[in-house]
Specification:
CATH class: Alpha Beta
Largest sheet: 4 strands, antiparallel
Number of helices: 3
Helix content: 25-40%
Number of domains: 1
Distance between the termini: 27 Å
CATH architecture: 2-Layer Sandwich
Radius of gyration: 16 Å
Order of helices and strands: EHEEHEH
Structural class: alpha+beta
CATH topology: Alpha-Beta Plaits
Number of strands: 4
């Protein structure tokens, strides 16, 4: 399954978050593949797309950053998958 996580730095945690990220702390845990990561140009937030069939591994990854970041995660589907479902729904 694909999971899109949005994140923003907690107040007062910017410098520590930068240090952790630059030290290699941005890698996902075992069992999770990072498909891409994007940072907003105003440094206020970012987006990371993961793929995993292991919810516990996703939970572990969130736990590694929850002290510094506000995190929100959403299971997502791509357009082709959504289109197939929507075609079924429209045919009812």
């Amino acid at each position: 399954m694909k999971v899109m996580t949005t994140w923003s730095v907690r107040p007062g945690c910017r410098d520590e978050a930068i240090q952790r990220f630059l030290a290699g702390g941005g890698a996902p845990p075992a069992g999770v593949t990072m498909l891409g990561r994007w940072h907003s140009t105003d440094l206020s937030m970012g987006f990371t797309l993961y793929e995993s069939n292991n919810p516990a591994a996703l939970y572990e990854g969130a736990g590694q950053w929850s002290d510094l970041l506000e995190l929100r995660s959403y299971m997502v589907v791509e357009d082709a998958e959504a289109g197939a479902v929507l075609a079924k729904l429209a045919g009812k």
